[in-house]
Amino acid sequence: MVRPSRPTIYDVAAAAGVSKSLVSLVLRGSDRVSEASRAAVEKAIADLDYRPSTAASDLAAARTGHIGVLIDDYANPWFVDLLRGLGEVFGAAGYRLSVVDSVTLPRVDDPVAGLLSMRVDGIVVARDVPESLLRGTAPPVVIAGTRADAGEADAVANDDALGARLAVEHLLGLGHRTIAHLAVAGGAGAAREASFRATTRAAGVRGIVTARRDQASEHAGFEDALAILTAHPEVTAIFAANDVMAIGALGAARELRLDVPGRLSVIGYDNTDLARTRLIDLTTVDDVSHDVGVQAARLLLARMSGTDPVDVRRSLEPALVVRGTTASPADAA
Fold first, then answer.
1. Which long-range contacts (CB under 8 A, 24 or more apart) does 147-151 make?
2. How far apart, in whole angstroms, are the C-alpha atoms of residue 202 and residue 198?
3. 148 neighbors 130 (Cβ within 8 angstroms)
4. Spatial separation of the C-alpha atoms in residues 270 and 244, rounded to whole Å
5. Cβ contacts of residue 31 below 8 Å, gap of 6+?
6. What's the rounded mean pLDDT across residues 64-72?
7. Cβ neighbour number for residue 329 with a 10 Å cutoff
C-alpha cells in the first residue's frame, strides 16, 4: 500500500482558493490578511492536517536553526560533557547541532567551509581555531576551551593553569619529589604544561616533561609513560594532560609491574566518565566541561540575538577530584 504524500503549502492554497503567498502570510501571523481569507486558510490547514516544514520556515526567515560545532576527535570523552551542556541550551532554544570532527573525518579539508555551506546560524569551536574563521565573513563564533590562535573571539574555558597547579600541588602534598608530565600540543595543553613547569620549579622539585603529542590518546599516554618510567625509574608520580593519556599511563605501570598508587601515582585532567568508573577510579581535575558548554551556548545565543556582552572571556574554576590512583610514595610512607 502506497502511503499518501504529506500535503504541501500548494495543497492548502488550492483548498482555500488563495495564493501560496497568502498562505505563507497566514502561517507567519501577518496582519495583512483579511479575516475571511485567514479563516479559509485555517480551515484548509485543519482539513488537510497540514504541518508546516520547519526547514522551509527557517529558510524563509533567513535562519536554518543549526549550530555548527567543531571538535578535534570523537574518541576524546572530554567532548561528551561539553556537548551535553551545549545541547541543553541550544535544544531549549530550538536549535539543532551539527558536529564536525577533524580527526576521524580527515576527508573534510575545510570543516568551516562545510558548516558555512550549511548556512549555520552560529559556530562553537572546541578545537584550535581554524584560520578560515579568522578571515572573511562568518556567523557569530564562540570558542569553548583554551585554544591556540583564538584572537579576540568570544571564549569560555576552565582555568587550565589553575587546574594543573591543583594537580601538582596535590602530588607535592603527598610527598612526591620527582614528577613527570605527559604533554600535548594545543592551547589547553600548553597552558597545563607551563603551569606544571612553574609549580614544580617553585617547589624546588624535579619535573620531567615529555615531548608534546599532537593527539592526546590512550596509546600516546601508554607510550610516553612507558618511555619515561623506563628512562627515569625515580619518577613516583605522573600528571597527564588529560584522562585518556592518564589511562594509558596506568597501562604502562601495569606493563612494568608498578603498583598504583603504592609505587606510582597517576593523575589526569577532565573528570570524564571513564575517570569516574569504579574500575579506573582516577584522580583528576574536573574542568567543568558541562558548564563550559552551557556558558558557551548562552554567549553564542546572545551574540546571535544582537546582544553585545561586556564579558567575552569567561574563565570557570576547575576542581581537584581525589580518587584511588594517588597516594604518598612508598619511600615517604
1. 147/186, 147/187, 147/188, 148/186, 148/187, 148/190, 149/187, 150/187
2. 6
3. no
4. 9
5. none
6. 87
7. 20
Helical (H) or strand (E) element with 25: helix 20-27
Q: How far is CA 30 from the centre of its chain?
A: 40
Q: Which among 200, 238, 242, 197 has a CA at the least distance from the CA of 218?
A: 242
Mind spelling out the 3-state secondary structure of 65-76? CEEEEEECCCCC
What sign has the CA pseudo-torsion 41, 43, 47, 51? positive
The grid coordinates of residue 178 equal 620527582
CA dihedral 179, 180, 185, 186 (to 10 degrees): -20
Entry pTM: 0.77
Binning pLDDT at 50, 70 and 90, where does residue 28 land?
A: low
The pLDDT of residue 281: 97
Cis amide bond preceding 261, omega within 30: yes
Residues 174-186 have a mean pLDDT of 96
- Return phi, psi of residue 319, to 5°: -140, 145
